[in-house]
Specification:
- The chain has 314 residues and is mainly α.
- The chain contains 14 helices and no strands.
- It is globular, with a radius of gyration of 20 Å.
């Protein structure tokens, strides 16, 4: 059942690693059937590729138009990489935040990011300098323009942000998210200060710094468990922060915790505590040679269709 997308060498490597894990550590009843095991392995391979994708696009030339919100080819992640390479660290992190907050819509793609960041074609657009100086101005502009931005049917937030609002005023809205994000960052001066302080607080430990930032980011409105995880892992993937998740952050999760229970217990019963699930997943990640971002993503996607491979692009 190997496909061109998943070559036999990749599959065999994970087959061997999973067998060794079960022999040395814990059973994995969720993948006792060969088909379920193969589907999980394919999701693992996809997750590894998603993590490596940012590095792959950074290794190739990126057009300056990718950073122009008034261009049809604008892409916030590529824009963040361009700003990082030019030394504009704050703008790079700001773009990662916006990309996480809005997400990529299945049809309209990055339109919300582009139109908000690009100020609907006006100058100066909503750069970090413009927003951080006076976030109230941003909220006022958003209040005036949110009806136009939300026009049509092919628009909206990405799949990881189903309960987020474009509103300038609602508690789960974009206005509150941006203003609280600015406050969270500027308490440390800027993004570099935020990350440096997290690393210093954890004696330079990259896993400790990830957890420090994850917990402190509760200050950012509408950024729950998944948004914080996505934002911080993207900072890592883009090379903006030397951090890595110490575990999968199952507390408050839906798909990943269902996947963990199905994998480690064979059912949705609450047989194992969240802490024990996390502990076993750390051991699993070590055995597979992947970090917790890959484990979290693969479990979330696998549990949707344990016996049928489906490519997820989110």
């Amino acid at each position: 059942m190997a496909t061109q997308r998943h070559n036999l060498q990749e599959i065999n490597k994970f087959q061997a690693n999973l067998a060794a894990f079960q022999q040395l550590h814990y059973p994995l009843p969720g993948i006792g059937a060969a088909l379920d095991r193969l589907v999980f392995i394919k999701q693992l391979i996809d997750s590894v590729r998603r993590v490596n994708y940012v590095k792959s696009i950074e290794s190739r030339p990126i057009s300056p138009q990718r950073a122009d919100p008034h261009s049809d080819v604008f892409d916030p992640i590529r824009a963040a990489l361009l700003h990082k390479s030019s030394g504009n660290f704050d703008e790079a992190c700001w773009l990662v935040f916006l990309a996480t907050h809005f997400g990529v819509h299945i049809k309209s793609k990055w339109r919300y990011v582009q139109e908000v960041y690009g100020k609907l074609g006006a100058q100066p657009y909503w750069s970090w300098n413009q927003v951080s100086i006076n976030p109230t101005n941003f909220r006022n502009w958003l209040r005036t323009n949110e009806a136009h931005i939300s026009r049509g049917t092919d628009r909206g937030f990405g799949g990881h942000r189903p309960y987020t609002s474009l509103s300038a005023d609602k508690p789960n809205g974009t206005g509150a998210a941006v203003e609280s994000y600015v406050s969270w960052v500027t308490k440390h001066g800027n993004h570099q200060g935020l990350i440096t302080n997290a690393l210093n607080a954890c004696s330079g430990n990259n896993k400790g710094a990830f957890d420090y930032l994850y917990r402190s980011m509760t200050e950012v409105r509408s950024f729950g468990r998944l948004a914080r995880f996505d934002y911080l892992t993207m900072l890592a993937k883009t090379g903006l922060a030397p951090i890595t998740p110490p575990h999968t952050y199952l507390q408050g999760a839906t798909g990943p915790i269902r996947g963990a229970r199905l994998m480690l217990q064979g059912s949705m019963a609450t047989e194992l505590s969240t802490h024990e699930l996390e502990s076993r997943l750390i051991a699993l990640g070590d055995s597979l040679g992947v970090d917790m971002q890959v484990v979290e993503d693969a479990l979330c996607n696998w549990q949707k269709h344990p016996s049928r491979y489906v490519l997820f692009r989110g």
